[in-house]
Amino acid sequence: MTVSAQISGDTQKAEPTATKTEDFVPPYPFRYEKMPPVWSLIGMAKRNFLSIWGVDDFQSRLRSKKIFTRELVICNRPDVVREAFQTNHDVLQRKSPQMRHALQPLLGDGLFISDTETWAKRRKVVAPIIHGSRVKGFAPIMIETIEEQRADWASQGEGAEVDALADMAHLTAEIICRTIFGRQLGKDHAAEVVQGFSDYQRHIDQVDILSLFGLPEWLPRFRGRAIKKPVERIMTVLDKIIANYEAQKEKGEASVIGGLLEARDENGEPLSREAIISEAAVIFMAGHETTANTLAWAWFLLSQCDKSRTNLQAELDTVLAGRSPTFQDVPNLPYTKAVIEETLRLYPPVPILAREAMADTSIGGKSVPKGSLVMVVPWLMHRNPVLWSKPDVFDPGRFLNPKSKKPNKYGYVPFSIGPRICAGLQFGMTEAILSLAILAQDFELKLKDGTDVQPVARLTLRPGENLPMTLHPRHS
Ligand code: HEM
């Protein structure tokens, strides 16, 4: 029996576990058939942004809804996604007011939330520093950090309970800290940076209602002092780390901060200290929780699906035969990669990509007035039944089977698409593949009995606040 695919009750339950031959449908929030009134949608959005979508939203191509004064346009097929994010980039490059308000106190004019000249300038400087061609240089730091996680799990023994979400967050934060700041400085300051960022995240609103209503930018957003403290804390640590780095110049090792300090724009000018701090904050923020959530979801999905877990273990045992992987092994682990790709399809860490129209434009023949909110929602498009067969089923094989129905690159967008595509795509994929390969070689993780896992979207999509699982060494 497949886990029931019926859409009723509040959620899709993760139990019972699928066996070797069955389809596994992991949990998703209830999808309504008849749209509730706007005020109740806003209440739902504040609790969990994923619960506002009805059955029709998944199947649609292009939809628009007016929420008070603001037009909301949702692009849900490759042709309109391409038009919005590629062809119309000039007009639709600005992040949504919600995103900008949430992150501006922390990221300043950093790449992630800037636009027009500032974005173009920073993108040119920052993207090459974390580009795919540099990942080989970062891989030894990744592997060393993952090995530490493996040793930590090994020390805990059979049946030990872990919070897989917290462990993956710790792992990816360590990796990004050590790659940004260099091994030693990263090690020394990781805990402080992580604490500052998670304090910050706790204080920012999930849904900025004022912006959704189209109210003006200058209206205060009532978060004031609570957010000031973690920002000051993060800025102070980053400033200290940069000063230390300049004093020690950790030479001979690839580090992002070294790249930022040495970078020159087309006029030969270096980045200002504030710009370096902003971009270091961007890379930390953009690069750690996304990968952590991906890995946590992958552990959950594998724990529920015998077939995929067996396939993964078979690949790791055959290709690696007990040794630790290196960067060179990554292309030889196609099933491991497919598990990550399928996880990113079902639970895209950034489930909504939203832009504000900077001028009047049109998409798919529909006029889009200046100020509209244009959204590409990977959560919807990755489960659009027109684009995917059995869209709610976890099936890594769909990324390997040349006959399976795969949409083009504008239909699968966990890293976004167009000129603003994730600058750390190769970094994130390599990190996720190596982490899963090293850890799944030695461990199986089982969901703790009685745990109800549900996807919750805040800034990123996560399996709730924690993910209790038990550790089972494979070769003891
Ligand atoms: C599985 C891991 C990751 C996922 C799913 C992911 C996803 C994304 C997405 C969807 C965006 C665009 C957001 C938007 O348009 O609103 C983005 C932007 C970005 N990401 Fe990633 N990311 C991941 C890992 C990383 C890593 C590891 C780094 C850095 C080392 C990174 C650096 C960035 C940067 C700098 C941007 C801003 C690009 C720009 O605006 O020009 N990401 N990422």
UniProtKB/TrEMBL annotation:
Alphabetized SUPFAM superfamilies for the sequence: Cytochrome P450
Binding site for heme: 422
Lineage top rank: taxon: Bacteria
Polar residues biased stretches: 1-11
Keywords annotated in UniProt: Heme, Iron, Metal-binding, Monooxygenase, Oxidoreductase
Region (Disordered), start-end ranges: 1-20
Cofactor(s) listed: heme
Entries under Pfam families matching the protein: p450 (PF00067)
GO molecular function terms listed in the Swiss-Prot or TrEMBL record: heme binding; iron ion binding; monooxygenase activity; oxidoreductase activity, acting on paired donors, with incorporation or reduction of molecular oxygen
Family as reported in the entry's similarity comment: Belongs to the cytochrome P450 family.
Name of the protein this chain belongs to: Putative bifunctional P-450/NADPH-P450 reductase 2
Source species: Roseibium aggregatum
Gene that this polypeptide is encoded by: cypE
